[in-house]
Structures are given as structure tokens and as C-alpha cells.
Amino acid sequence: MSSTRFASYGVRGWSASAPPVIPGEEEKPKAAANSFTTEDGKAIVSYWGVSPPKITKEDGTAWKWNCFRPWESYKPDISIDVKKHHKPGTTMDKFAYWTVQVLKYPTYLFFQRRHMCHAMLLETVAAVPGMVGGMLLHFKSLRRFEQSGGWIKALLEEAENERMHLMTFVEIAKPQWYERALVFAVQGVFFNAYFLAYLASPKLAHRIVGYLEEEAVNSYSEFLEDLDNCSFENVPAPAIAIDYWRLPPNSTLRDVVFVIRADEAHHRDLNHYASDIQCQGQELRYTPAPIGYH
């Protein structure tokens, strides 16, 4: 029995020891780790060979934004009609319209003419529907083994565009602690409410967003009026806005608000269009989505 134990111990000891070196055989080199430097100057070392690409502008200068790439920037269509309104006709339309009307008054009473704070809260809410709708259409596509007609991408583009509006405004003004707390509360309630609404009736959900975007257009129109009346300081446009919308280098806050209002008008049309398709008894996947509609 003692010899058996000794043999077993010998096997274990051999398996744990280093393999013998064979003369003439060179040691294989270890995989080289890639390293790169982040925006704050910290070095990141990665064994897996994943490193961010070095991107430059057309003039050869380095691209400094990680949140979007040059090919994702665009020149917005500012010729869009910002006064269009979908007149409520059906019971569903009237319900969606008055829901938005009831929701807008508390925000107007709270913010009044503090346009920058109002815009930041507005964008934290406006970026929710596209993400929720795109997510639910994504899962539906997986469950049913069918294409989405491009609507997943179109809705996620909308959510990303709204988020970039917020990233632009925070470069100009920083929210106070109570505004951040308000965002937590409003976003939590709105996300769950819109999630349930989209599950119950996607056409109603899109109609509600269409009317929300109409109010966003009106809100930015008031912002522009106060900028023109010098009631609000027309500061220089932040660099992120100049690169994202391909604005001239000497652009101002008014130019930024002007293009953001055009974006909101496009989101208004897209959501009313999505609701109209479904109100006519069709599924979104049978109608090509307006991808890149800016």
C-alpha cells in the first residue's frame, strides 16, 4: 500500500513540475500586449489585441470624440417644416394628444424660461422611446425569425441622436443636484410607462412620441425667440456640436438650437409615420424604415 501511495505522489509531483527543456528547441515568444492611452492620459494595456483605431478628420487632424465617429456626423436638413401638426382624429389620437398636453404643463411651470435646464431634462426623456422601441422590435425579430424592415436601426438612430443633443448641452451648462434627481425620477417612470405602452399598442406609443416631438419643436422655437431677443446669452457653440452637425467654426448656441429643432421635427415625422403605418393595418417591417432621416 505504501508503494502505491508513493507512485501516486510521484505522478502528481511530475504533473505539477515544469516540463524539461529540450536542447535546440527555442522558447516560443509570448504574445505581445497592445497598449494605448485614454483621453485622461492613462495607459491601458490589453493582451487581447483590441485597441481603438486612430481616426483623423479630412484635414488630417486627430479626431478627439469617442462617442461618435466622423462618418456619423451630418449636415441636418433645416428646410423641414417645423410648424406641422398632426390633427387628432381618432380616439387613440386624442388620447395621445391630451396625454402629452397634461404632461407638459408641470415641466413648463418648473422650468419656465430656463431653457437650458428644460432642454437637458427634455433630452433625457426624448432619448428613451427610440431605445425602448428598438429593443422591443429587436426581441420581436428574434422571436419570430423575421426582418424588421430597418426600423430597429431607425429607432436606435433616433435615441442616439437625442443623446447627442444632451451631450451638447452639458458642454454649456452643468445640471444641479436637484435636476439630476429629477432626471432619475422622470426617466425611471417614463421608461417603464413607455415600455408597457409599446407592448400594449405600438401605434399609440409612436403617436405619443410624435406629439412629444411637436412640443419639443415648440420648446426650441421659444428658446430661439429668447436668443434673438437677447434674453439668453448666445455663447459660442461647443466643439462637439460643430463636429457632430458639421457647423462652421464660428457657430453659436443659436445655430446649435436651430439644428436641434430640425432634428426634433424629423423625429416628429418619423414617429407619426410609424403610427400611421400601423393604424392602416400594416406591420412596420413591410415598410422600409427611413434610416438616416435627419
TrEMBL record:
Keyword S-adenosyl-L-methionine: no
Annotated EC: 1.10.3.11
CDD domains: AOX
Annotated Pfam families: AOX
Cofactor details (free text): Binds 2 iron ions per subunit.
Species of the source: Populus tremula x Populus tremuloides
Biological process, per Gene Ontology: alternative respiration
Record-given protein name: Ubiquinol oxidase
